[in-house]
Amino acid sequence: MLNEKLLSILAHPVDGAISIVTNGTDGPHLVNTWNSYITVTSEDKLLIPASGFVKTQRNLSLNNDATLSIASREIEGYRGKGTGFIVKGTTRFITSGEEFDHMKEKFSWIRAVLEVTVVSAKQML
User: Fold this and answer.
1) In degrees rounded to 5, what are phi and psi of residue 101?
2) Rounded CA gap, 116 and 64, in Å?
3) Structural domains of the chain sorted by starting position, each given as residue range(s) with its CATH number in brackets
């Protein structure tokens, strides 16, 4: 089960940037999204709408591991307001089916959904 503090960040109404790092043949690649775009499934997977993410998808076809930085200045951390997590997981891109259709209803502009199966989530702040 995902940490309650991490779920609080993802559910917070004040948007925060989420960074997604993948590795390809030419090294690391970084893309961003917003916490309000992420849907958490009942299996604790993260569903992230993807419009671009072309290089991310190419990298993940070679190595499906990704690292995410998820943070918020609004959620209480170890030493006061503000906390963040480094989340590691395995991924796949979804382009059809129930999960894709559900996300497409919310985000008409998507071409795919990046699904992240969380392997670890470590609080950093």
Assistant:
1) -60, -40
2) 9
3) 4-123 (2.30.110.10)
